[in-house]
Amino acid sequence: MPEIKWVGLKDPDAAFPEQMLPYGAKALRCPDPLSAAALPYGLGPLGLCFGALFLKAWLVGGFPLEVEMLFVGILLGFLLIPVHEYLHALCFPKGATVYVGLIPQKMAAFAVCHVPISWGRFMVMSLLPAILGILPLLLFLLAPAGWGKTMGVCWAMAVMGLLSPMPDYMNVCCVRRQVPRGATLQSTNSGLFWYM
């Protein structure tokens, strides 16, 4: 298991200890993950959540959730953002140091580790936090018709949990388009690189 260090509030330009890149490493071309470029990557997950809502309404024969509980689910979703980052952190190799914190200026959280990881590990690390949306969405779908309060909380948590990884989905798409399977990926303070 990696060593996970909570570093608290950081400036957007904060730097963390990094390793040298090997000769021939290529930079990954990808927009800033905290930019508006990540927004289109939320359309599919948002469509999935609304599809589940319409399906549940059809199954129970009416609007399934109590709207006033959506705020509770959104609040819980925000509180789980550090858990999202810790899930990223858990995917790094044993002995690695992962720095977890918040960037208040961008209203964002981060998990930074500059050790080399495999293509497959990168994919798992990037997508694992989506579980924070998948589990409440499944609970929403499986909840009995009379559990309107629970369904309201779960549906809002599902939306938050599936939308918060939008930058991660974007990074996964960039890696799939540019990086061959079997490559090694390594982040630095100036971006993500890959090499064979």
Q: What do these coordinates show?
A:
- The chain is α+β, with helices and mostly antiparallel strands.
- The chain has one domain (23-195).
- Helix content is 45%, strand content 17%.
- The protein has 7 helices and 7 strands.
- The protein has helices at 43-60, 70-79, 81-90, 119-127, 131-142, 148-163, 166-178, and strands at 3-9, 26-27, 97-103, 108-112, 117-118, 184-188, 191-195.
- The strands form 2 sheets. Strands 2-7-6-5 form a 4-stranded antiparallel beta sheet. A 3-stranded mixed beta sheet has the order 1-3-4, with helices on one face.
- The two termini are 25 Å apart.
SSE layout and pairing:
Elements: E1 3-9, E2 26-27, H1 43-60, H2 70-79, H3 81-90, E3 97-103, E4 108-112, E5 117-118, H4 119-127, H5 131-142, H6 148-163, H7 166-178, E6 184-188, E7 191-195
Parallel strand pairs: 1-3
Antiparallel strand pairs: 2-7, 3-4, 5-6, 6-7
Helix pairs in contact: 1-6, 2-6, 4-7, 5-6
